[in-house]
């Protein structure tokens, strides 16, 4: 069963999401990859205000292709998440509630997710064009010089994701592997 979640992503909503849940997100989220994350964390370290509010927000790790005429967004497949791992805990400490990407996360990120009640969603890379169609509005909010990697504020409707790591640290990658190994042992 799919869960429909309206953004922003509050702690209460995060706690209700469990590893393996299929979710359709609707509302506002932000995009950003490693270059943008590095700049955001440099601002945090300097004690300066961020150009976006991260509390109760979700960041999608993506650098979309240019939008075709009439579309708000181009194809938008997820970026490999470990590239953001050096920066994620600082943003989680500021109240970031969700991250969307693909691949494994570090122990430090998972510990920070548990501490800060956050969730990691997986998006399907092969469905980049379909994901792009879930975006109804997109605007660059900062770091325009980064091109496709600029931070965008996007509005999504029924954006398809799966909870990979929940706020308790349950990890679908580990659970799936364990279930498979159990099935072949029997």
TrEMBL record:
Database matches in NCBIfam families: PRK06842.1, ttdB_fumA_fumB
InterPro entries listed in its UniProt record: Fe-S_hydro-lyase_TtdB-typ_cat, Fe-S_hydroAse_TtdB_cat_sf
Gene source species: Oceanirhabdus seepicola
Range of residues in the leader sequence: none
Designated name of the protein: Fe-S-containing hydro-lyase
Keywords: Lyase
Lineage: Bacteria, Bacillati, Bacillota, Clostridia, Eubacteriales
Domain of life: Bacteria
Listed SUPFAM superfamilies: FumA C-terminal domain-like (SSF117457)
Any GO MF annotation of the entry: hydro-lyase activity
Domain Fe-S hydro-lyase tartrate dehydratase beta-type catalytic: 8-175
UniProt similarity note: Belongs to the class-I fumarase family.
Matches recorded under Pfam families: Fumerase_C (PF05683)
């Amino acid at each position: 069963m799919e869960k429909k979640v309206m953004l922003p992503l509050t702690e209460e909503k995060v706690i209700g999401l469990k590893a393996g849940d299929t979710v359709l997100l609707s509302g506002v989220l932000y995009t950003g990859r490693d270059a943008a994350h590095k700049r955001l964390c440099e601002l945090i370290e300097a004690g300066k205000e961020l150009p976006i509010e991260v509390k109760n927000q979700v960041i999608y790790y993506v650098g979309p292709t240019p939008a075709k005429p009439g579309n708000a967004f181009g194809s938008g497949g997820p970026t490999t998440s470990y590239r953001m791992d050096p920066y994620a805990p600082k943003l989680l400490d500021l109240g970031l509630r969700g991250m969307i990407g693909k691949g494994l996360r570090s122990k430090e990120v998972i510990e920070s997710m548990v501490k800060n009640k956050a969730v990691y969603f997986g998006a399907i890379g092969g469905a980049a064009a379909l994901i792009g169609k879930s975006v109804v509005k997109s605007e660059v909010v900062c770091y325009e010089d980064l091109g496709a990697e600029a931070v965008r504020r996007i509005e999504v409707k029924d954006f398809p994701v799966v909870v990979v790591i929940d706020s308790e640290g349950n990890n679908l990658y580990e659970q799936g592997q364990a279930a498979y190994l159990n099935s072949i042992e029997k």
